[in-house]
Amino acid sequence: MAVVPYKDKNEGKKEQVASMFNNISKKYDLLNHVLSLGIDITWRKKAVKLLKKDEPKLILDIATGTGDFAIEALALAPEKVIGVDISEGMLEQGRKKLKKKKLEDRIELQLGDSEKLLFPENKFDAVIVSFGVRNFEDLEKGLSDMYRVLKPGGKTVIVEFSKPKKFPLKQAYHLYFKYILPKIGKLVSKDNSAYTYLPESVQAFPDGKDFLDILEKVGFKNTSCKPLTFGISSIYLGEK
Fold first, then answer.
1. Is 142 part of a structural domain of the chain?
2. Is residue 5 part of a domain?
3. Sign of dihedral through CA atoms 224, 227, 231, 235?
4. Which DSSP state fits 208?
5. Can you say whether residue 71 is alpha, beta or left, with left for phi > 0 and alpha for psi between -120 and 50 degrees?
6. What is the CATH number of the domain that holds 18?
7. What does the pLDDT look like over 157-206, one tens digit per residue?
C-alpha cells in the first residue's frame, strides 16, 4: 500500500503530495536546512559535481520544489535548466527566489507531473532529482519517463534519503526521524502530517541495491550508488 501524508483522505498519493507541499511551501526551505542541519546543501553540491565532465547543456530538474537543485546545477554552466513540480505553491516560492537572484533567464519552472512529462523523447543531456523520487506515486513509471526524455548517453543523478545500517547511527537516525523531526516539522509548518509522512516514506523507499535494480529494470545502465554522511542519504547515477 502506498505511503500517503493524509491517511484520512481518499485522494491518491500524487494529489496528497501536491496538497502537502502546497501547505508547507512557505516554510519548506527553512525546515529543510534546519532538519538536515544544513547538510542537504553539501549533498546537492556533491551530486552536481558528478556531472561536471559531461558538460550538460540542457538539464531537467524533476520535483524541483523551490528550485534549490536547479540553482545548484548552474555550476555546470548549462544553457538552460527546466524545473518541474506538481506543487504550484512550491513553484511560486521558487520563482520568487529566482527573481531575487536574477536567474529567471537561466532557469524555467513549470507545473508538471513526473510520471507524464510534457517533453519529447531524447531531449535532455541530464535529468536530476533531489529528495523527490520517494514521492512518486508510481516509482517505475516516473523513472521510465525520466529515461524517455534523456538523450542517449545522457545521465541521471538522483539524491534521496536512505537508511543507515550500522549501530549506533541506525538507532540514532531512527530516533531523530521518528520522534524529533515530526515535532519540529509540525511546530514550524503547522501541518500535522507532512513530517510524519517524511520518515514513513523513507522507511518504505527501496534504497541502495534495491533502487539500482529498479533503475536498471527501466533501462538505465552503468548504475551506481554513493552513500553520503554514513548512509543517511545516497546519490544514485544511471546512464541511457
1. yes
2. no
3. negative
4. T
5. alpha
6. 3.40.50.150
7. 999 999 988 889 899 988 988 889 888 888 888 888 888 898 899 899 99
